[in-house]
Amino acid sequence: MSREKEEDSFSILRIYDEPEERRNMPESSGISSQHEQVQYQPDSPYAMLQIPPCPPMQHGPVYQEMSGMTQQQWDLQTLDTSELRAMWFSGAEPGEAAEAGPSFLPGSALGQPSSSPSPSGEAWSLLRAVPPIPGEVVVRQRPPRDSWKVGTLRHGKRVYAVAVGGATRHVYTCGSGYIRVWDESALHAWDKAPEAQLDLQNPQNCVLTCKLFPDEQSLITGGVSQTLTLWDLAPTPRVRAQLASTGPMCYSLAISSDAHICLACFRGFVEIWDLQNQILIRKHEVPIYGSRCVDIAGNKFWTGGEDTSLYSWDLRSYQRLQQFNLQNEILSITHDPSEEWMLVGLRTSDIIILHTHRKEKFKAVLQKYTHHHSLKFSSCGSYFVTTLDESIHCLAAPSLQRLFQVKESSDILCCDISSDNRYLVTGSKNSATVYQLMY
């Protein structure tokens, strides 16, 4: 059995705000920085098929370090964009890469220094042989620059879990006794009735967690109940199956990217379900106070809770792989779209950032004690949202620039981002709030 307890040391990252003078700069002023010019190059590492472009943003230390590379180095590095994920959340300042050891620039995953030698004649011959990508095909990944509160969904009770469909434009608000379904017209309204209400089998039951399937045609819910409920959402919402669980309260759910596996987190154990055949594969024991949160990324799953330790487990052998002592209670766990990075929200509001298979770990410090801490990564990977009690913070990835901040009138219990990156929805004491993301 491979068990590895990680040291408590983390590299500290700085969350920063956009300078006031930059925020107020007219878009048509004609003023552009060197970073903006790099950002708009077609061979930029951010040139990916993602959401439509929006105004240039201020970049953090990682991007500043990359902008010092020569054009020849860029041409070679961008041949394999899969290596770009290795630069995630680097805390190195410009000029520090040589002193800090292996950097997180492209190509450094194997320990090479970040400064590449000039390309050889053979390399240039290869580059010239690669046909250029038409400019109209490249849509650059952009984070939102702000949000606009556009509607309120009157759920009537506490909203403990929420799910937002991007393709279907539906929102599902979950709580005690029922789930309410809202169509697109309700997203831009303040007092519109739901499209449908799905009553739970027992009115005393309460949904605490839900997960929308990638195809947005199914939803699974868990909470204060002896069952997990699998819902078909189209053409009309209905119960497909009740999965008999072995615990009285499900705190957290996670589903694999192909929607074949579901993890349900209970006190002291995690249930592993085959969703296609609706069969319980395994009841996996975990530390009794380390089972509030669960997430799955690739062939690993992660658990954490009140005992302040984060555990990773092999999904095939079920052996414990790692244990991180985070010294504070874990309130949420989520991963980025590449399934390479895990974000962990702590009671202190700090965010722990871990690579799933490399020894890279960081801490972003927010310095606020919280009762509720939710994390949600965007499907495009350029930003994520963290809610801390009544506050919403949208942070760019990997720079950790604070894109916008919103304060609500009551504690936020949950949040979700639509898969098309157009809407952010938060759940609170008796309603859900809809924000349209502005690019």
Automatic annotation (TrEMBL):
Q: Which residues lie in Polar residues bias regions? A: 26-40
Extract the InterPro entries matched here: Groucho_enhance, WD40/YVTN_repeat-like_dom_sf, WD40_repeat_dom_sf, WD40_rpt
Lineage, top-rank taxon, reads: Eukaryota
Task: Name any Gene Ontology BP term.
Answer: negative regulation of canonical Wnt signaling pathway
Task: List the Gene3D superfamilies hit by this protein, alphabetically.
Answer: YVTN repeat-like/Quinoprotein amine dehydrogenase
Query: Which family is this sequence assigned to?
Result: Belongs to the WD repeat Groucho/TLE family.
- Please state what the protein is called: TLE family member 7
Gene source species: Urocitellus parryii (Arctic ground squirrel)
